[in-house]
Every structure is written in structure tokens, then in C-alpha cells.
Amino acid sequence: MANSKYEYVKDFEQSDILLPNTWIVIRLDGRGFHKFTSKYGFEKPNDRRGIDLMNAAAMAVMTELPDIVIGYGISDEYSFVLHKSCTLFERRSSKLVTTIVSTFTAYYIHLWSQHFPDKQLTPPLPSFDGRAVLYPGTKELRDYMSWRQVDCHINNLYNTTFWALIQLGGMDAKSAEQELIGTFAAEKNEILFSRFKINYNDEPEIWKKGSVVFRDYELVEAGSTTVDEDAVGISEQKQISKTQEEKEKKLRRKARVTVQHLDIIKDEFWDRRPWLLSNKPGKIPKET
User: What is the sign, positive or negative, of the torsion defined by CA atoms of 90, 91, 93, 95?
Assistant: First the structure.
């Protein structure tokens, strides 16, 4: 770019480079989705078409951005995790957030007709906001993921009970809300079973556990590998040659991106998928 007398305005730009050697979580949320879902008649308490669309957009984001390690989604939110050694966009917060949010939004709109063929999108179109949050170690990262999955269970149990009272019990929204004030999980389970013969344990895992998006490598036996996750940081990243870095990116691009509905709180999920925390691609499963 040629120098000019106006170039001084660049001095007003603020640095937004995120702290090195920390896990980056980009979390996006649907903007005004209460009105949006009402406008398009989403089923309550859960709409499979809507969740499948969110998951499809998330898988597209991960496919386009191999630096993303894992994603987790519930309702109208999604969290994308970048490894602590990630140097994408020089770790600039604005670049990371806007790229992930805009890519997700673009695919959400692009794929809409595949999931809602009978409902044409009209302005205002769906949009998402986003933020970047840093976590210093693996414990904090896993606690964040666990928090989101616990929230998924709590919210889904409430919503399942709330809408059962309305749809099956004939209550209005205000009465159903009043009925559930101060109730614990056991009491909600009792309402579902005693009044409506609904066993919450039999509800689909997608509603109870949310959606986990990651690259599908060969699983390993739990305890067969040990990963010092927090030792894999900036120092190791600098030692990787450009050739090796490109090789690893190619391996990530070759891996199939999958969406599953699993328990990510227990150690087993992470132990059997060491590539999630080590940032080292695993073995591509053999085609059967």
C-alpha cells in the first residue's frame, strides 16, 4: 500500500491479539431467535429440523477451518474451540470471531431450504453474534464444555416439562411456568411420568446431551495414550516446520467431520480421542 498523508489513521487501530498459549473458545448465539423461531413455526420443545440445520452449519465451519478442534451446540448457540497453539489470523480476536460467525451464518442461510423446504426465508434474515473467551488450561476448557452440557440437560428437562404441561396438560404458558417455579429435577421427572407417562431417560440423546462436532479419527483404548495437553503450546508450535504444519492441515481436511451426541463430561470421551487436546491428527478410519 502506497504511503500517503492519510496513513496516520492506522494509529487509531487497537491491537486485539489474544493471549498466547491459551485455549480460545468462540461462542456464537442466535440473535432474536425467540421471535425468529416463532415466525417460522419451530416445533416445541425441540425442532429436529432446526437443530439439524445448526449442526450442518457447524460441520461446514469446521470443514472450512481446520484449525477448529471441536464444536459443541445446543439450541441456538454453538461453541468452537481453537487449540492453545493456534496462530490463525495471528490470534486476532476480531478476525477469529467475525470469520467463524459470518461463515456459520452464511451456511445457516445457504442450507435453510434443505431443512425447511416449505418455509422461505424473508427479511429480517437470521443472524448470530459472537465472542471470544480464553481459558488457561485443559481443566478450564473441559469445565467450560461440561458447563454447556449441564446447561443443555437442565434447560431441556425444564422445556420438556413446560411444553408437556401446555400441549398435553392443557395449561397456558403462565400457569405452566407457575407450576414449575421452585421444582427440582426429580419433581420435573415425576410430573412427566405420573401425568403424561413420559420417561425422560428415554428422550433422544440429541436433546439431553446436545451436539458434538469433531473430526472422526480411529478411536484409541482409554488409558493407552497419555497426552500432556498443557505442554503443547507456543514453544512446540514454533518448532513445527511449515512442511509439517501443512501436512497436518491436509490430514485434518481429509478427516470426516462428524456430529454425535455423547457425554463430554466424563474422561472417556477425551481419553479415546487424544487428538482433541493434543492437536495432533489421528489415524483416518479405514473404509469398510
Answer: positive
Q: What is the pLDDT of residues 127-183, one digit of tens each?
A: 999 999 999 999 999 999 999 999 999 999 999 999 999 999 999 999 999 999 999
Over residues 191-216, the pLDDT tens digits come to: 999 999 999 999 999 999 999 999 99
Asked whether the beta carbons of 72 and 79 are under 8 A apart, the reply is yes
Who's near 58: CB < 8 A, 6+ residues apart? 71, 73, 78, 80, 104, 211, 213, 259
User: What pTM did the predictor assign?
Assistant: 0.90
Rounded alpha-carbon distances, angstroms, from residue 1 to 4, 6, 7, 10, 12: 9, 12, 10, 12, 18
Q: Where are the strands (E) in the chain, listed by range? A: 23-30, 68-74, 77-82, 128-135, 211-216, 256-260
What residues are paired with 130 via a beta bridge?
A: 28
Burial class (CB in 10 A: 0-12, 13-18, 19+), 119: middle
